[in-house]
Amino acid sequence: MDEPLVRAVGVERTFRTGETDVAAVRVATFEIHERGRIALVGPSGSGKTTILHLIAALDEPSAGSIEWPAIGPANGLRPGPVAVAFQGPSLLPPLTVAENVELPLLLLDVPQRDARDRATELVARFGLSAEAGKLPEELSGGQAQRAGLARALAGHPRLLLADEPTGQQDGETGRAVITTLLDAADAEGIALIVATHDVRVAERVATRWSIRDGRLDTGIASSSR
Q1: Please, what sign has the CA dihedral across residues 103, 87, 150, 185?
Q2: Residue 223: is it exposed, middle or buried by C-beta count within 10 angstroms (0-12/13-18/19+)?
Q3: Which of 224, 193, 190 is nearest to 211 (CA)?
Q4: Which of 170, 179, 190, 200 could be 185's S-S partner, Cβ–Cβ 3.0 to 4.6 Å?
Q5: In the predicted model, is pLDDT for residue 11 greater than 80?
Q6: How many helices (H) and strands (E) does the chain have?
Q7: CA 130 to chain centre
Q8: In angstroms, rounded to a whole number, what is the distance separating the alpha carbons of residues 164 and 107?
Q9: Secondary structure of residue 132 in the 3-state scheme
Q10: What gap in Å lies between CA 109 and CA 87, rounded to an integer?
């Protein structure tokens, strides 16, 4: 069997708040494989974002271990093999939408013309062609979120982590965003994890994990797309 992209064993993440230890993730064990499609479902504050940050090596576990057997060491995950589309604002303010989407490619030493072509394609795919030359401050929350998703896809990652990707979209646009993500994952062979509290989003993803009070359950299967 092929090595997993990610393997976590007994992972915990505890934060210190004043005099109290708060467990954001409690003893989570899981693997993520090539072309996996996972919806990480749970209410706000349940630990979804913490799980994503641990997978992306943006945070370190307080206990247990996490590794990336098919990718390599944590310091080589980004930009490149692992991409994150954050829930909150993440675009660089001085750069236009197109320049933000180009940035991961330029950091990977992709020729500028190729980076521009890839950015133009992704900006259009997320319905942002008219906003390509705008700065982040000129965008709505939903537009900025879609630009962040386009940027996350730009570098052809092997694993994309999307944190509440429809959180600032209306119903119709949210459905289109999920379709775009799933189509891109299929076409480019990307493993995809979507953290969401929206059951309608989760129902479109092949595998469902649930988390509540930091306790991760990976044994819940959903219907497919």
Answers
A1: positive
A2: exposed
A3: 193
A4: 190
A5: yes
A6: 6, 9
A7: 25
A8: 26
A9: coil
A10: 27
Q: Which two tokens stand for residue 213?
A: 């009070």
Q: Within the chain, where are the H helices?
A: 48-55, 97-107, 112-125, 141-154, 171-188, 199-202
Query: Which residue's entry shows tokens 């693997």?
Result: 31
Cβ neighbour number for residue 31 with a 10 Å cutoff: 14
Residues in the chain: 225
CB 33 within 8 A of CB 8: no
Residue 25's nearest CA partner among 219, 189, 194, 217 is: 217
Look at the pTM and tell me if it is higher than 0.70: yes
Residue 137, classified by CB atoms within 10 Å of its CB into exposed (0-12), middle (13-18) or buried (19+), is exposed
pLDDT digits (tens, 9 = 90+) for 106-132: 999 999 999 999 999 999 999 999 999
Main-chain dihedrals φ then ψ at residue 206, nearest 5 degrees: -65, -35
